[in-house]
Amino acid sequence: MPVTRSVTHFVALVSLAAGLAGCGEVVGEYPAAVRPAHTQSFPTEPASPLPAGVDAMTGLQQRPMRPPTLAAHPGLAPNETCTASSMADLGALAPNYGAGVGPAYLSGQDSWYASVVAEVTNLMVDSKYSGPLLVRPFQLGGNGKSTVTLADFPSPDPSTGLPVIKQEHGVAVVPALHTTGGGLYLGAVAPTSFWRAWYGLLSTDSPGCFGLQVDGDVFTEFILFVVNPGTSPGG
Q: How many whole angstroms separate alpha carbon 38 and alpha carbon 31?
């Protein structure tokens, strides 16, 4: 069943993101693009606890990258090796959909295109998890040389480093540190009923199959997404 998508309301950066996203896309507006034909749930896997005496970011960076091996999908042609993570309904949140099984979800778009300079991206983190997160991109297949870029919105308020965004019900906007290799680190927060959300821009230098490895205190999650050639049908 398709996930019902709600609109996020941005106070500023609308014209900026519209120019970056291309094809007339505006921050908070999600075109009715065709979702990947083949989706799959990639279970969250257990990971060793962070070593004692080491700060969380360093400990998480020491974990190896281990992208999943894609199992054969009954609907895939022999030369098709990429499936996208299935979408989850995030309930009353805005945005209320995201790819992944949690506690982290990739939102902002339900399909991705290589010809777009940068597309609005939300990383949503379930309120049930308040610990640290390290998010690292990877490519599956291809030549292994394509890159995923996760960038912050330029902030009009240097004192906070955050874009000006209307606070959505149940969601707290948080900053992220950029790590070597193009990753993002979200520090631990005090337990709360609010979900965390990082708002930024995602781009790749080619179409293909890509993913995010999300490492937390005692788990590793994988979120896969397909970047299509050409432009968005909404453009």
A: 19
Q: What is the DSSP letter of 175?
A: -
Gyration radius of the chain over CA positions: 17
Q: Residue 214: helix, strand or coil by DSSP?
A: strand
Two tokens at 160? 């906070």
Residue whose C-alpha is closest to residue 205's, from 84, 112, 108, 98? 112
Amino acid letter at 74? P
Report the pLDDT value the prediction gives residue 218, as an integer from 0 to 100.
97
Map 180-193 to HEC letters: CCCEEEECCCCCCC
pTM greater than 0.85: no
Pairing type for strands 148-152 and 219-228 reads unpaired
Convert the pLDDT of each residue in 61-96 to its tens digit: 999 999 887 655 454 444 456 889 999 999 988 889
Give yes or no for a contact between 105 and 124, defined as CB atoms under 8 angstroms apart. yes
- 138 - beta bridge partners? 211
